[in-house]
Amino acid sequence: MHYDFNTVANAESQTPVPTGTYICRVTEVQEKTARDGSPRWVLRLQVAAGEYAGRLAGWDSITWSPRGVHRVQLVLCALGIDARGEVELEASELLGLKARVRFELEERENTVTGQRRLYLSVPYAGFEPLDGSEEDEAGGCYGDNGSAGIDAEGGDDESSGDGPSLQGVAGAAF
């Protein structure tokens, strides 16, 4: 047998769908704890429409920490939850909600075996409302400043201090 293994990818793919943006439904929420002790909700995202409908697109998580709360707000707003002011929310309330979610390829290497694997991951600002807007009828999901505290690079904009807060959310101890 002769075979040229130079044509075999050196990475194992763990991608159930191609990279891209999909209308996704939250089909499972696992309540966990982040390394810093903050509540972390892990979301199972299933493609809800199109050629890949019914397939698992991937997993993403939101962390209810002072640093992560801006992304929590962005994700909640994209899912159609009004995240202005104080919010009382149970993880199970996310089940069945939909948003447009962008998945990008991420490569991880096992430090022990050297095996590389390709996964789909959701970037920081990878959630968008289904209607494509960032505002609701009440003048914007994000409150008076119109943003979820995201700077141009997609990171937390904690320096301004004028972004809305989700303190008081059930289970969120800051």
Task: Furnish the topology, listing elements before pairings.
Blueprint: E1 11-13, E2 20-33, E3 39-47, E4 56-63, H1 69-78, E5 98-109, E6 116-121, E7 127-128
Parallel strand pairs: 1-6
Antiparallel strand pairs: 2-3, 2-5, 3-4, 5-6, 5-7
Describe this structure as you would to a colleague.
This protein is 6% helix and 31% strand. By secondary structure, it is mostly beta strands. The protein has a domain of 88 residues: OB fold (Dihydrolipoamide Acetyltransferase, E2P). Strands 1, 2, 3, 4, 5, 6 and 7 form a 7-stranded mixed sheet that branches. A hairpin with an 8-residue loop joins strand 3 and strand 4. The longest helix has 10 residues. The radius of gyration is 18 Å and the shape is globular. It starts with 10 loop residues before the first strand and ends in a 46-residue tail after the last strand.
Average pLDDT:
79
> How many H/I helices?
1
Estimate the global geometry from the Cα principal axes: globular
User: Biggest β-sheet, characterized?
Assistant: 7 strands, mixed
Identify the CATH class of the domain at 21-103 and 124-128: Mainly Beta
What string, H for helix and E for strand, traces the elements in order? EEEEHEEE
Q: Strand percentage, roughly?
A: 25-35%
Query: What's the gyration radius in Å?
Result: 18 Å
| Structure summary, number of beta strands | 7
CATH topology of the domain at 21-103 and 124-128: OB fold (Dihydrolipoamide Acetyltransferase, E2P)
Through-space gap between termini: 63 Å
